Amino acid sequence: MSEKIKAAIVGSTGYGGVELYRLLASHPYVEVTSVTSSSSPGSLFSEGYPHLTDIHQEPLDEVNPELLKSKADVVFLATPAGVATKLAPQLLETGLKVIDLSGDFRLKSPALYEQWYKKQPADEAYLEQAVFGLAEVYGEQVKGASFISNPGCYVTATTLGLVPALEAGWIKPDTIIVDAKSGVSGAGRGVSLGNHYSEVNENLKAYKLNKHQHIPEIEMVLSDAAGEPVVITFSTHLTPMTRGIMATIYAKVDGSRSAADFIDLYRSYYEGRRFVRVRGEGILPSTKEVWGSNYCDIGFAFDERTGRITIVSVIDNLVKGAAGQAIQNLNLMMGWDESLGLQFVPVYP
Ligand SMILES: NC(=O)C1=CN([C@@H]2O[C@H](COP(=O)(O)OP(=O)(O)OC[C@H]3O[C@@H](n4cnc5c(N)ncnc54)[C@H](OP(=O)(O)O)[C@@H]3O)[C@@H](O)[C@H]2O)C=CC1
Ligand SMILES: CC(=O)N[C@@H](CCC(=O)OP(=O)(O)O)C(=O)O
Predict the structure, then answer these.
(1) φ, ψ for residue 32, nearest 5 deg
(2) Of 174, 198, 230, 231, which one's alpha carbon is 20 to 30 angstroms from that of 50?
(3) Do residues 75 and 68 lie in contact, with contact meaning Cβ atoms separated by under 8 Å?
(4) Which CATH code, of 3.50.50.60, 3.40.50.1980, 3.40.50.720, 3.40.50.1820, is assigned to 5-129?
């Protein structure tokens, strides 16, 4: 390739945005030409993030579709829910490609978005246009698309852990329970009572039980895989760690299957997809084993007494759960190898 494509990051001062910057900085075919701030345009990126001193020198741009069009080919939106609803259509109208990391275009039903996000939904024509970028499941639809809605972090860990079993009809859809845990960076950089140090440290908190905004998104993917409506019990917990999501998933097995059968099924489903690693028998993944990487690692335990399979799926929420998967989607959109710029080893310990 002779020329790099130019990328802009809106919401660069947040955790998803700064992670996009970190990963794109070493992408062989991408140059970051604009990082924006809606609240402090003109200031330096390194003022808010001193680790970027001498790495990024230009002032932050304002969020202006015409300016972005003049500087970029593709725009990543790492903004809170409700921002992309209006901004993404404006950017698409200028001819830019858009990858939205928020929940604004994931649910195809405006009523469902309003119900779970308590915000005004996007225009239906754009909801239709947005391709849901769960790369290992809908990668073929991502290829050549110009507008991607990147999946939620919990959604990525949970659905990658369930889709092969549901598609194969190996688990009973009405028995699924997901017990998920996230590191605090999942809540973004903004401070709130619930995520400051003394509230989180040495603490484990359940939150948004049966009310989490990722529930309809997970059910959308699982229903698609099962070929019938699926509803789940989904419980989220805040853990005293910076990065990482673990989804521990329980379901009744349909028929007679062992953990080894599940391992074979998942290895065959994800064959050729380098970012899903299926562990061997008796080996369960932990969040640190994917830290800083784009991997989703999956392991199994089968309980013969109850007939239940336990599936453990882990990701780094900021990489596979956000920026990494967004770049994986850019690679697929552009017809490149999906792993470009993402081929790094997890940070350990
Ligand atoms: N954190 C995570 O692990 C994940 C996050 N996501 C989603 O990605 C998105 C970003 O999340 P995250 O980075 O954690 O959030 P942060 O709160 O850390 O950052 C969001 C950034 O958006 C910018 N912003 C706020 N309002 C506007 C606006 N009206 N127009 C333009 N920019 C605005 C702010 O920067 P400024 O004021 O400088 O403009 C802010 O820094 C969210 O939708 C989130 O749900 C998805 C998966 C995982
Ligand atoms: C730890 C924590 O608070 N995590 C956030 C994840 C938010 C997120 O990623 O939001 P959308 O994908 O819906 O945009 C939460 O549970 O709401």
Answers:
(1) -85, 115
(2) 198
(3) yes
(4) 3.40.50.720
Is 103 within 8 Å of 81 (Cβ atoms)? yes
Residue 170, Cα to own-chain centre: how many angstroms?
26
Q: What is the amino acid identity at position 233?
A: T
Q: 307 in the Ramachandran plot: left (φ > 0), alpha (ψ -120 to 50) or beta? A: left
Instruction: For residue 19, give the amino acid letter.
Output: E
What percent of the chain shows pLDDT beyond 90?
99
Task: Give the dihedral sign, CA 39/41/46/52.
Answer: positive
Q: Domain segments of the chain: what residues?
A: 5-129, 154-317
A 10 A CB-CB count for 91 gives: 24
Beta bridge partners of 253: 171
**Which tokens is 235 given?**
């419980």
β-pairing, 245-252 vs 308-315, is antiparallel
Question: Given 72, 153, 215, 226, which residue is catalytic?
Answer: 153
Exposure of 47 in the CB half-sphere (CA atoms within 13 A):
9
Q: Which CATH architecture has domain 154-317?
A: 2-Layer Sandwich (3.30)
Ligand 2 atom 13 nearest Cα: 103
Reported as type and span, the H/E element at residue 65 is helix 65-71
Whether residue 113 contacts residue 82, with contact meaning beta carbons closer than 8 Å, is answered with: no
Find the helix or strand (DSSP H, E) in which 132 lies. strand 131-132
This prediction has a pTM of 0.98
User: Is 90 exceeded by the pLDDT of residue 337?
Assistant: yes
Contact 347, 287 (CB under 8 A): no
The two three-digit tokens of residue 82, written as one number: 């409700």
What's the residue count for the chain? Answer: 349
Which pLDDT does position 131 carry in this prediction? 98
> Is 296 noted as a catalytic residue in this protein?
no
At 2 the pLDDT is 58
Same fold for the domain at 5-129 and the one at 154-317? no
* Ligand 2 centroid distance, CA of 114 (Å): 16
* Cα of 30 from ligand 2 centre, angstroms: 27
Mean pLDDT of 136-140: 98
Structure token digits, residue 50 = 């001193």
Contact partners, residue 292, CB within 8 Å, separation at least 6: 243, 316, 319, 344, 346, 347
